[in-house]
Structures are given as structure tokens and as C-alpha cells.
């Protein structure tokens, strides 16, 4: 594809993303490229990079284009991202040349607005803090409560692209063997600093096309997510519930730590997500997992009260900790979401806790940065449920600094992971 055709495709994709504001952008992008298989891998990467740049710069681009008649459009947003990235207006005009597969010529209003950006930087000293740091205005007091004077530093760390983290599957071999396997496929991976199973790659790479991935030697999983599994510390032979399992990312890691021995029940309210786990479990060589769909009126939880050694509640949350990977999530999030999620999280935690046997462990986790979804939820749970107490994580699946703690809050700035929270609770022995 020509540069003009790539830009035109990026604008079309951005239009599709804007037309489905509550759908994750990566899902829209996957559908877009699936319907256009003639777009090659190299072109897809260039188009995706342009879109993800625009999504990361969303509030700042709109601030620069605030005076354009009719407001910013996908055309002007993509063009402004180029201009504020250092391109000359003449180069941008040539990309809107009206030729086959290219966008039509810039209108006089578009041209004037974009020409005014010449020589300007993306970050402007006159920008309000939430605009410059790319979060909604209503979220500011939440972030102040979470970070205090570190707010700006923490949010700036969410602005960049995340590295690609993998987990070596110890059911198929050690981490060093996974590194060698990837190296044989011209992919260089280095050990992550915290997770004993983690591997890190610089930027996006086509790992799903590698033999290492197809054979289940590696899985894609952020280092912080791996540490949540470490906090659960499930042992071989135990009975474990992954209560909000989704497509099974943490379930896979739990099974690995249990050496495929014992029983894991992966629960979720979404049948498609649970069905999506089947292929992953098979590829990883996991065979001690059963799946259970949680539906309204289901008696499964009640009938298995006190039956499990470990229960993981990876609760649905705002996802603020994943904004490096999902920059569109900060655009879609509204305050009502956070309010409703808090009620849902408390209900899930209450129900899941009944599954824990006396002396058993309950881990509550989110990929949120917000105190309201994290510490406040745990404190409220303990206040209404005196059968549980916080305990040190211990075990040998966490790095030494985290073992003595009853949980952790990870951030891109402090830990170079996505934002994650985990609290380790234990049901008191009767």
C-alpha cells in the first residue's frame, strides 16, 4: 500500500471505532482487518500504529483542533497527529491527494486548521492537566486520592506504549528454554525483573505466529498479571476456583503452578469467553481445569460453600491500569461505570468468598488504579465479614519484596507493569 492508502485505511478504521464507542478498539480493528485480508501484515502494523497514536493523543489532538468548524473528524485527527509529530503541511497535503485508495483533498477549512499546527508540539503548556495527561476531567479527584503528589508522574507513565510480556509455560519447559526457542525464531526476549516466569519483548511482535506460541511454550500475559497468580500461591493437589476467569489467562498460569495436579474450576458469566479458553488450555497442555458458566439462579456457588483451598477473584473493573495497551478505554470510561462497578465488585467478592474453606486463601485483584475499586473494596469486605483477615502472601512464586506483604499495587511508573492491585485474604480456621 502507498503511504496515502495506509493513511486512508487508518481514517476508515478510526471512523469504525468512533461508530462503536462502547466496543473496544482492538475488537473493531480485528474485525476491520479480518474483512480486508488483502491488507498485508506490514501495512496492518503501520495502520494500527497510526490509530493507536491517535487514541493515545485523543484529548490533546482535540484541544489543538478545538476551533475547527464542525469539530475534529477522523481525517483531521489523523492529519493533526502527523503534523504534531513533525511532518510538514506539504507532506500531509500530498497524502490527501484524491487518487485511488487515497483520501480526497483537504478542504480549505481543514487545510487552514492543520497549517496552523506547523511547528507546534503535541504537549502545550496552556493545556489543562487532564488534557495533557489524557484522562477525563471527572476522574481527577479519583486519581488524586490514589496518587497524591505522584499523580502527574504516574499518569505520564501511562502515556507510552507497553512492552510485550510473555509467560514461559513451565509445563513445557523452563524460562531459559523458552528464550532459546524464541531466539531460534529471531525474537529476542529477556527475563522480566519480578515474575520468575516472565519474558519481555520490546514493542509489538508477531509472537502468535511463532512455533513457540503454537506449541504452548509461551503465553501472552503481562508481568503484573503473573504476579497475581503468584499471590494466589496454589499448590499441586489443591482445589482452586478462578471466579472471573474470562478467557483463562490466569487459569493457565495457576494450572502451571499446580503442575497440572489437583482441580481448577474456571468460572465466568460469559459463555463465549469460557469457550475461548478451550483452545488455550489445550495448547498449553493443561488438563486439570473444568469450566462453569455462572448464570442467574445458579446454585453452584451455594452447593460448594467452603469446598476450595484457593479462590481468585479477578474482578471486573475500570481497567485504568491497562491504558498503555488500551488507550481507547480512557475515552470510553464514564463515572457511572466506576460507580456501578463498585457495587458489582462487592457482590462478586461476597459470593466468591463463600467458596473458601477454613484456612483457605482468597485473593481479590483488579487491573484498576483507583482506591475505590481496590483498598476501599477490601476494607469494606473485611468490615462486613469477620471470618477473613489479611495475611502475608508468602510462598515462592513472588519476588522476595512482595512475599512479606498482604498484597500489592503495581503501576507502570513504579514497576514497569500494567496497573494491578491484589489483596491476600485468609479465612480464619474454625
UniProtKB/TrEMBL annotation:
Ranges where the SAM-dependent MTase RsmB/NOP-type domain occurs: 154-428
Location of the active site: 367
A Pfam entry, by short name: Methyltr_RsmB-F
Keywords: Methyltransferase, RNA-binding, S-adenosyl-L-methionine, Transferase
Binding, S-adenosyl-L-methionine: 268, 314
Listed InterPro entries: MeTrfase_RsmB-F_NOP2_cat (IPR049560), MeTrfase_RsmB-F_NOP2_dom (IPR001678), RCMT (IPR023267), RsmB-like_ferredoxin (IPR054728), RsmB/NOL1/NOP2-like_CS (IPR018314), SAM-dependent_MTases_sf (IPR029063)
Family under the similarity heading: Belongs to the class I-like SAM-binding methyltransferase superfamily. RsmB/NOP family.
Entry protein name: rRNA cytosine-C5-methylase
Organism (species): Asaia siamensis
